[in-house]
Amino acid sequence: MTGTLEELGYTASLREHYNSVAAEGQCPGRVVEAFQELYTVSTGGRALRCTLSGRLRSRLADRAAYPTTGDWVILAPADATSGVIHDLMPRRGVLLRRAAGERSAAQAIASHIDVAVIVQSADRDFSVNRIDRYISIARAADIRPIAVINKADLVSPEAIGELCAAISSRHPGLHVVTSSVVETGGLEGLRAELLPGETCCFLGSSGVGKSTLINALMGHECAATGAVSEATQRGRHTTTSRTLFALPGGALVIDTPGMRELGLADSGAGVEDSFAEIRDLARACRFSDCSHQEEPGCAVRAAIDEGSLAPAALDSYLRLRREARRFEQSAAELRRTERKHGKMIKQILREKRDRW
Ligand code: GDP
Ligand code: ZN
Hints:
Structural class: alpha/beta
Bound molecules: guanosine-5'-diphosphate, zinc ion
Strand order of the largest sheet: 10-9-8-11-13-12
Strand content: 15-25%
Number of strands: 13
Shape: flat
Radius of gyration: 23 Å
């Protein structure tokens, strides 16, 4: 993917950072494709195949710190087609993937994301709870969520109205648009949400129409691989992680396979922020650690009894919070085991040394 740095999403604060740290012979660039430790980096004008400098690799604390699609990096071009990445610029809008309780560390699957386009299909499997989950993931990463009800052509306008209302009553203020790839003008609402220079990602269950939407927004078939192929001169079959590309309107899309299996991030903060109404009500609960289940003086349950809060919202909130807590616990357990393991090794080494 080529185009100027600004067209790639370069901002004033990134420029400022770059100017304060970059050395002679270096330039800024954005990772448009990441595969293991090989990166395609667009420098605004050309795409270079890059590796990591040894010094950078030794500084990277864990898997999650490795560059990923969307990252802004500082590199030194070696020749017309390759270069070496020397540093990462400060990150924001990072989507992490990690499996709770497994030894595998978290992995960053996309970075510098501004907007999460949460797609649901109007005809089946519609679930506000699932939207809650994706909103929590987005909020935890400081990414602005919007909701899209796709396949609007398959249901009546009344049914669409009800779905929109169901989302809006759970999440007041959330932008909700409908879309259809088969109706003329069916993408206008969505297009209006995708601003030039902003990076978005599409989240949602398989089959809701994410790929079809992206292709339609691009205006041609196989759009998702087109831009990358152009940059790296490689065909679709070898593109293992097709990734960052620009829509005709100037918005950028990151679409990596890893996004399909996103789980809740490791912090409960995203969940709290996604249910602002419950968070605000909870301030009036008698107990500051109220679980809103059996406790006396619970303002959240009182709101349900009064009819001002939907019971389904509390159910969804409690489920996501449980999930986030379980995740935190297993992450903490993992750290404890690792610490114990580390101590044991030190102990063995000490005993060995003492013996000799
Ligand atoms: P993904 O798994 O979310 O990427 O979903 P796909 O893009 O593969 O789409 C799943 C199916 O839904 C495909 O058969 C699409 O043709 C169909 N589809 C996608 N968008 C629409 C739409 O707006 N209207 C209708 N009727 N079908 C759609
Ligand atoms: Zn309570």
